[in-house]
Specification:
There is one protein chain. Helix content is 82%, strand content 0%. The protein has eleven helices and no strands. The radius of gyration is 19 Å and the shape is globular.
Length: 220
């Protein structure tokens, strides 16, 4: 693979990653509610799942997902249900905070940040959200063949390079988003803003859940 081909893929992948989606909502929600360290764990989960999607393409599992309607539908439903679960959870937290009008104190936030088990749970949230998104598999199947010559001896290496590039863009973009958004945290910590942000995140995740259910892909 030459540099021009890799650069073209990098530009295209960057634009796709920067477009609005459930990943951005989850990252901002985690940042506003739990802080920077759990957000990094969530982003690392997104990175790992993105790389896994590339491996699925390499081993033909994504093709199986796309060409077997039952498999595609099952993953699509699971992904939508998981986003729905996250959305309902956020809305319940919003309603509960409206009743109590209490924000988590600094001690409880630090306990969340320093608890290894909870950090792993944040990683799982990012990983599951991305791994259960069949749109990523469909995207890989539609895009990778345009950049990789699968008849060449370097096909495997080229596919892994593009996969690592895409996953790195995912990680870098959301770390940048979280770092910049961290400057706005004093506003998010205001009780009214924090509650409404949590409620808005829940509604948006329910929206993406419905959109995922209506998503269809065409066989090549």
């Amino acid at each position: 693979m030459d540099y021009t081909t890799w650069l073209g893929f990098t530009v295209m992948a960057t634009l796709i990653v920067m477009s609005p989606g459930p990943n951005g909502v989850i990252v901002l929600k985690t940042l506003g509610q739990y802080g920077y360290k759990p957000t990094l764990a969530t982003i690392f989960g997104l990175f790992c799942a993105t790389f896994m999607h590339g491996l699925f393409v390499l081993f033909g599992l994504s093709a199986l997902l796309i060409y077997v309607p039952q498999a595609f539908m099952a993953i699509k439903i699971l992904g939508a249900l998981y986003l729905c679960y996250l959305g309902v959870k956020s809305i319940r937290q919003f309603l509960k905070s409206n009743r109590t009008k209490n924000s988590p104190d600094l001690k409880s936030v630090l306990q969340v940040n320093n608890h290894k088990k909870r950090i792993i749970n944040f990683w799982k949230t990012g990983f599951i959200t991305q791994i259960l998104n069949p749109k990523v598999s469909a995207l890989y199947l539609a895009v990778i063949p345009n950049f990789v010559d699968f008849t060449s001896a370097t096909a495997t290496t080229d596919t892994l390079l593009l996969t690592l590039t895409h996953a790195s863009i995912v990680g870098s973009w959301f770390i940048l988003l979280a770092t910049v958004s961290l400057k706005l945290m004093p506003y998010f910590k205001e009780s009214s803003v924090g509650r409404w942000l949590n409620g808005l995140a829940g509604v948006v995740m329910l929206y993406f859940s419905a959109m995922l259910l209506t998503y269809e892909t065409k066989k090549a």
